């Protein structure tokens, strides 16, 4: 079992998700939830046991993603490590990465064999064949500008024949009016750019930017960055899974 650190990690006193993951690993309280706030909707809850699910309990879009993983795999934003563990059980060569030291400690306890603690933007180690970013993991880029920058940066992380696998959603349905029209300010920032913050117990995290990108917009940004978009699956409410591969000259 290895543990390497790259770049920054979250402050433990502001790491609500990491604290929830560590607490559930300790006492398995099925009632634990992370409270999620945003700048556009009512607060929501993430049941912490959901982050510890086995492959048999994962939705189709996630098992399809696992099916498409190949070669050396980096699970970015791995959280409690459920996807990494599922890949390990399949005999895959997978490394899990998270910016939360509490999540990393939990993954080590759960038996994830290869773990990186830190920020994907600071990674400068060996390249991978697959970057896996599930549960809308691409959202960590924050904005459309951030998406373009990340796709360029990601070329440093994958081999020329490598891929980036992730899911995202077009959240335009959240802006639909009763008459079927959409209440979107076309002069404002892209509607899929959201600010979130989280709480677990008395612990409150800082606000952070998160991106939900529609499939057509993703295609535009991917093409500019030199990627082909391969659509794997489309689910309910415009939730989709893709694999991005480099367009090599």
UniProtKB/TrEMBL annotation:
It comes from Flammeovirga aprica JL-4. InterPro entries: Methyltransf_25, SAM-dependent_MTases_sf. SUPFAM superfamilies: S-adenosyl-L-methionine-dependent methyltransferases (SSF53335). This is Methyltransferase domain-containing protein. GO terms for biological process: methylation. GO terms for molecular function: methyltransferase activity. Residues 73-133 form the Methyltransferase domain. Keywords: Methyltransferase, Transferase. Transmembrane segments: none annotated. It holds the Pfam family Methyltransf_25.
């Amino acid at each position: 079992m290895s543990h390497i650190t790259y770049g920054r990690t979250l402050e433990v006193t502001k790491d609500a998700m990491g604290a929830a993951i560590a607490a559930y690993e300790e006492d398995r309280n099925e009632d634990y939830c992370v409270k999620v706030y945003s700048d556009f909707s009512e607060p929501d809850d993430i049941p912490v046991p959901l982050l510890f699910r086995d492959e048999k309990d994962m939705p189709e879009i996630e098992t399809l993603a696992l099916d498409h993983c190949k070669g050396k795999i980096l699970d970015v934003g791995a959280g409690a490590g459920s996807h990494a563990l599922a890949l390990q059980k399949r005999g895959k060569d997978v490394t899990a990465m998270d910016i939360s030291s509490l999540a990393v400690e939990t993954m080590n306890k759960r038996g994830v064999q290869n773990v990186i603690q830190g920020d994907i933007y600071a990674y400068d180690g060996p390249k991978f064949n697959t970057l896996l970013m599930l549960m809308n993991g691409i959202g960590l880029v924050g904005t459309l500008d951030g998406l373009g920058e990340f796709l360029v940066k990601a070329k440093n992380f994958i081999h020329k024949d490598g891929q980036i696998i992730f899911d995202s959603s077009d959240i335009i349905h959240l802006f639909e009016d009763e008459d079927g029209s959409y209440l979107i300010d076309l002069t404002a920032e892209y509607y899929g750019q959201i600010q979130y913050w989280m709480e677990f117990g008395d612990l409150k995290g800082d606000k952070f930017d998160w991106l939900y990108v529609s499939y057509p917009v993703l295609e535009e940004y991917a093409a500019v960055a030199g990627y082909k978009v391969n659509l794997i699956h489309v689910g309910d409410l415009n939730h989709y899974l893709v694999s991005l591969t480099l367009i090599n000259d």
